[in-house]
Specification:
The radius of gyration is 23 Å and the shape is globular. The chain is about 35% helix and about 25% strand. It is built from twelve helices and 19 strands. Strands 4-3-5-6-7-8-9-13 form an eight-stranded mixed sheet. Helix 5 packs across helix 6 and helix 8 runs parallel beside helix 9. With about 425 residues, the chain is of the alpha/beta class. It folds into two domains: about 325 residues, 3-Layer(aba) Sandwich (Rossmann fold), CATH 3.40.50; about 80 residues, GMP Synthetase, Chain A, domain 3 (2-Layer Sandwich). Strand 15 and strand 16 form a beta hairpin. The longest helix is centred in the first third of the chain and has 22 residues.
């Protein structure tokens, strides 16, 4: 093994060879989704696309997006049995956070678990983790796959892991002082809390053996001021870390060059699209990150709309790795929180519901009126406008769905109807 890379054959692969590998895996994935999933077969037929239509990588744009609201609805209709493999092949399941809705279960086969461990080991290796390191793993373990993925990846590398989890602050301090870890992994918020408490107790970064840390699970590590504060408090190099339960808990990270998130493109096809037009943006332009599983067996995502904003660049990093990067990491989300009748939700979740109705066009607005009403104004797809007799029943159906989904009354209005 080249000591600079976990898997040099993959990480240094030429762009052409990487794209050939992606296409081979993409065609395999689309075929099995079409054959084994009612959910995907319905979506593909609705979009008038079949597996044989995927001949080039760019043909992935023919496929419809998948939104989180659709996954919730699928789970409601069919229960948790939404995996593509037989039950005996499953080994684990983890839910999404369910912050503003019902958690969605994501299943892993043994092959899925091995791919997640491998890609997590790759990310940790790119940040400098080696077999001699002692890792203070302060990511949550309970029903959150990030903690377990890192735990197993550290062991695969040969390192020593302290499974502290995200528990009591003083226990974190005790482990950091007494167990002499060389690396820490946590959310940015927890890292800041730990650092502040250490300084309150009279410690500085010089008193610790920590050398570097990786921070994810929430925004922060990619923000220069936050990164700088974490580094100062803990006396370390701080790296940005990214994962998404629907895709993989830990699959994109910075390398020691700190030149942006490296995407694991052999396992994931990553696109960036304009949030308004849904068309791909040019290289270096910001847009919504859309991800397709190329190898996931149990619950693959095809063109999953993450809602996260980033840009993609394809030039080779100075570290030598050839996979696409996102300089600046995840720079935000497409949505802003709305608080209505005590319930918090985001515009993207409204959109998730609207996209379940093919009659709804691209544009929509959400208004909180002076009369304390939440009104969603939509436009219709031009192909549906002529079917005027269905318009008002459609409006009522969408309104009832939104009201039921969020638990608060939401009205729907349709634009440009005479």
């Amino acid at each position: 093994m080249n000591n600079d890379y976990w898997d040099p054959k993959i990480e240094l692969m030429s762009r052409k060879n990487l794209q050939n590998l992606q296409l081979k895996r993409l065609r395999w994935q689309i075929k099995r989704c079409y054959d084994n999933s009612l959910f995907y077969r319905f979506k593909f037929k609705k979009a008038n696309v079949a597996p044989e239509d995927i001949r080039r990588l760019d043909d992935v744009e023919k496929l419809p997006f998948v939104f989180k609201g659709e996954l919730r609805e699928e789970q409601r209709r069919f229960g948790v049995n939404r995996y593509l493999v037989t039950r005996d092949k499953l080994v684990e399941a983890y839910p999404t956070s369910g912050t503003t809705g019902e958690p969605v279960l994501n299943f892993w086969t043994e092959m899925d678990r091995e791919y997640i461990i491998d890609v997590t080991a790759r990310t940790l290796w790119s940040m400098g983790l080696r077999s001699e390191d002692v890792v203070h793993n302060a990511f949550k373990y309970e029903l959150w796959a990030v903690g377990m993925a890192i735990h197993r990846a550290v062991q695969k590398i040969g390192g020593f892991v302290l499974p502290i989890g995200d528990g009591k602050l003083m226990r974190q301090i005790e482990f950091l002082v007494k167990m002499s870890p060389t690396a820490i992994l946590s959310t940015p918020t927890l890292a800041l809390k730990i650092g502040s408490k250490l300084h309150e107790l009279g410690y500085s970064g010089d008193d610790l053996t920590l050398e570097f840390g990786a921070f994810g699970g929430e925004p922060g590590a990619s923000i220069p001021s936050t990164r700088k504060k974490i580094e100062k408090l803990l006396g370390i190099d701080a790296y940005d870390y990214y994962g998404l339960m629907e895709i993989a808990p830990t699959f994109a990270s910075e390398c020691t060059e700190k030149a942006g998130l490296h995407w694991s493109e052999d396992y994931h096809l990553v696109e960036v699209v304009d949030p308004k037009t849904s068309e791909r943006v040019e290289e270096g332009e910001k847009g919504v990150v859309v991800i397709t599983h190329l190898s996931k067996e149990a619950t693959p995502m095809i063109r999953y709309w993450t809602g996260d904003i980033a840009k993609l660049e394809y030039d080779k990093c100075s570290c030598g790795r050839t996979h696409a990067r996102s300089p600046g990491g995840i720079v935000g989300r497409t949505d802003d929180m709305i608080i209505y009748h005590g319930i918090s939700f985001y515009p993207s979740e409204i959109e998730e519901v609207l996209r379940l109705f093919p009659e709804v066009g691209t544009e929509y607005t959400i208004t909180l009126t002076d009369q304390d009403k939440c009104v969603v104004e939509i436009e219709l797809d031009p192909n549906f406008v002529s079917q005027r007799r269905d318009v008002y029943s459609l409006r009522q159906e969408i309104s009832e769905y939104l009201t039921s989904f969020f638990g608060v009354p939401i009205e729907v209005e349709i634009k440009n109807i005479n």
